[in-house]
Amino acid sequence: MTEHGASFFTDLLRGTGRLASEVEDALWELVTAGLVTADGFENLRALVDPKRQRGEGRGRRARPRHAAGRWALLSTGAENAPSAEAFARLLLRRWGVVFRGLLARETLAPPWRDLLVALRRLEARGEIRGGRFVAGFAGEQFALPEAVQLLRAVRRDPKRGEQIRISTADPLNLAGIILPGPRVSSLTSVTLLLPE
């Protein structure tokens, strides 16, 4: 569809060399992801109604599936912008654990609802883990497998009562975002003392 534009189902079969069922599954996934559309409702109905797939029924419904209508890629207007999945991967590499509260610091992040879909897909593929990793925050949380291992190691380590000193300009300045207390501007020249 990228090279040839809107295509009939038979053209997609010929162009991909795949089975009809594989092309149907791919179209269904692309439609649900909002990436592909049909120029009429008949093709969409055919994906949903198994009787239409077999050409059963009376009158208009007796036509075989995909007899009319073309499939086309939707233009999102964000072709040059990073995808939600790419941004989710970036956040996972940066933080190890990602949850909604963390996005207050990420001014360029896509909406949480888009990231959530991408994170759930990554979890379904087994690339990341979902669960409750950071206490005190409601909602879904996702983590890289190596971050889960590090969190377990930190939990097992006895606390030494040390304090960690960071600059307010440090990206770890999450005071007032996910740490209790007032938000501290990154433009001040103050250092923060974080308890272990």
Could you explain the architecture of this structure?
With 196 residues, the protein is an alpha+beta fold. The chain has three domains: 67 residues, no CATH class; 78 residues, Winged helix-like DNA-binding domain superfamily/Winged helix DNA-binding domain (Arc Repressor Mutant, subunit A, Orthogonal Bundle); 36 residues, no CATH class. It is built from seven helices and eight strands; from the N terminus they run βααβααβαβαββαββ. The strands form three sheets. A three-stranded antiparallel beta sheet has the order 1-3-2. It has a three-stranded antiparallel beta sheet with strand order 4-6-5. It has a two-stranded antiparallel sheet with strand order 7-8. The longest helix is centred in the first third of the chain and has 13 residues. The mean pLDDT is 78.
